[in-house]
Amino acid sequence: MGAGGRMNDAISSSKDEVLKRVPTEKTPFEISDLKKAIPPHCFKRSLATSSYYLLRDIAICYTFYHLASNYIPLVPKPLRYIVWPLYWFCQGTSFMGIWSIGHDLGHHAFSEYEWLDDTLGFILHSSFLTPYFSFKYSHRSHHAHTNSMEYDEVWIPKRKADTLYSEVLNNPIGNLIMTVIRLLLSFPMYFTFNIHGRPYDGFASHFYPQSPIFNDSERKQIWLSDAGIVAAVYGLYKIASATSASWLFCIYGAPLLVMNAHFIFFTFLHHSHPSIAHYDKREWDWIRGALSTIDRDYGIFNTIFHDVTNAHVVHHLISTIPHYHTVEATKAIKPILGDYYKYDDTPILKAFWRETKECIFVEPDEGAENSGVYWFRSLLFSPEFSSSVQASPSPTLQMDLCFQM
Predict the structure, then answer these.
(1) In this structure, are residues 27 and 291 in contact, taking their beta carbons and an 8 Å threshold?
(2) Which residue, 241, 341, 361, is CA-closest to 34?
(3) Is residue 250 within 8 Å of 405, Cβ to Cβ?
(4) Secretion signal: which residues (predicted)?
């Protein structure tokens, strides 16, 4: 009995620690202090090493394609209902690994040659229907204004006054519906209609060169991004014409949906947690905003996604560090960050469901309405979670055709 009691105390303590709020006071350290703590070699971008990871990911992607196109049609039809979804998940996951390298290319974290980084990033992201330069520029703004209520570019939290989120959808069924829509549609809707983005005057879209997201010096490259998407879509059309729409969906379309879901899944978890604050312009500063993100453990997916999942905090602090050095850099700065560093080892699916339930909208604490600091809230806190926080300052048709292939 005694041992069980101590175990329960340990579990409770661990849960309290995970939900303990990150400090909101100005940091006692500067970014220069963090850079000094990181071994110098972590800042070096090796073209050979970066190319190795890119070529490895492409080889994995090609292997999945070869196996699917040559051997799945030989599998007995009933088993295809298992084999095709397995391929979609594996191939979509490999897509996400390649896309993550494209993300590094946009940060100039691949090589010492910016022209090479942009060329490769443009090709890779266009292949996955992502407007490279458009995302590069909006993502740069996201890094410059992380967790700013007014100026951050993505995952802008809702306010309690938005009753669609705080009341109508704030229930298990509403959360489930929003989760499905979010995972399936948020990726293309973000680029097309700026869903989850900050409000702008005028039509904000990553495909619209005159969008207020961009400044005048960037607009020509937005046209180039659009040209890349048009070329990719035309290539896909030619492939579908030479094969069939169902074949293209099975080989490319369904894995792309999985990739989109991965992207939304882990970026949502990067910036949604009961312990991290958002700030308005009265209180926001860059370093506290950059520290208002979470490192999590995705198991083997950490490696597949090039540690963007478990070393995201350091990425927000110094985004030009190559992915193969971010884990080492994180270990180097953790002693300096102290309580300002947040790591959550909650099993990832459990954490995702918790955050979809509890991170509905943000409001200041009661009695601190003018503090400029906002915390995630839910009108449906479970008693256990609430006390912890208070204690711690038409694809269906295409799918059927796949199984017949």
Answers:
(1) yes
(2) 341
(3) yes
(4) none
